[in-house]
Target: Protein translocase subunit SecE
Amino acid sequence: MVQDEPNGEVVATNGGSTREKKPNVFSRIALFIRQVFAELRKVVTPTRQELLKYTGVVLGFVVVMMAIVYGLDVLFVWITSYVFGVPGA
Model:
């Protein structure tokens, strides 16, 4: 069942009855597309300053994670070299 919301949005509901006829495939596709456009209208694009800040945070996080993984890799190589007695490592 298709129901209008108070904010003007059309949504598909389960209606409560057990054997209610579903809308045909084309009306379901049209409903989906209307809902996609309604969600896209809610998207707020970041300003240039916000975008640069978010990019810096992501790059900083990636660098920190790379350092942690590198440190653990060096530690595990040292431990395995010590345990198994690999010369020169």
About this structure: The mean pLDDT is 86. The longest helix spans residues 48-84. Strands lie at 2-4, 10-12.
